[in-house]
Amino acid sequence: MGDIKQELKSKIIEQLNLEDVTVDEIADNDPLFGDGLGLDSIDALELIVMLDKDYGIKLSDPKEGKKIFESIETMANYITANKTK
Amino acid sequence: MMKDNYRIASYCHIKNNEISLNGALIFKGEGPFKTFIKMAYQHFAVDYPKFFKMDNLSKLAFMAGDVLLKHEKVSPEQEENIAIVFSNRASSLDTDRKHQESIQDVTAYYPSPAVFVYTLPNICIGEISIKYKLYSENSFFIFDAFNPDYLFEYSSSILDSGKAEKVLCGWVDFDEENYEAFIYLVSREGSFIHSTEEIKRLY
């Protein structure tokens, strides 16, 4: 589980172009949207594509994303339980 | 004609890893565009994290606009009635290609939303408008080459009609590693005459 969290942090920084953020600065329970990392709606779409491309998870209902993308912790839990690749 | 009264307040060039303002070199970087524009971002202490999410054309236009508007003491905190009229040759082709690559293979069809949103050239106008709270007229034209006659007429017309108090105007072109920005602010005050001849001379 720890590995996937680190992996997610690296992927988010790289794919969402978070230039001034390092892996160490993202806590597992930090909110990804709003006051936390400050991600926006386009970033949310990027995360949906990332789930599909890297973990074989297709979100049929985008509203699910709100809970899944709350934090690195919630993302890692969801991916561990649902990944197909 | 009213348009004879307009002036060019300032102008900015970005080309060949150099940024100049009103003809004076103010920054010289190195490397490919990605490296150069990041160096410029740090040099001018832009402090706008969304910059790194932009495509190359938007980074180019945003940097030129930011340098010029800061020099003109335009505040991002206050709404301004400044129109934006930009033009180029390559449209958003640099980003269009990236998007095309992501949808080329039907077995690995993962278009990036963050890339797709930049597949229109006028998005770069939006990036400047968001930072500087510009809600006025804006247009983006595609020409074979820099077209001072058209830009002169169009910006004069906007000012004549009273639709804006100033016009941020010019050329922002990016295709592969070739890039060039030349933008200028048309106003009622400024050191340079607003005429096609003067625009050609400054360009």
TrEMBL record, chain A:
Pfam families, sorted:
PP-binding
The question of whether Phosphoprotein is a record keyword is answered with yes
Top-rank taxon: Bacteria
Q: Does the keyword Phosphoprotein apply?
A: yes
Q: Where is the Carrier domain?
A: 2-83
Give the keywords, sorted.
Phosphopantetheine, Phosphoprotein
NCBIfam families assigned: PRK09184.1
Name used for this protein in its record: Acyl carrier protein
Organism per entry? Kriegella aquimaris
Lineage of this protein's species?
A: Bacteria, Pseudomonadati, Bacteroidota, Flavobacteriia, Flavobacteriales
UniProtKB/TrEMBL annotation, chain B:
Domain of life of the organism in this record?
A: Bacteria
Name of protein:
3-oxoacyl-ACP synthase
UniProt source species? Kriegella aquimaris
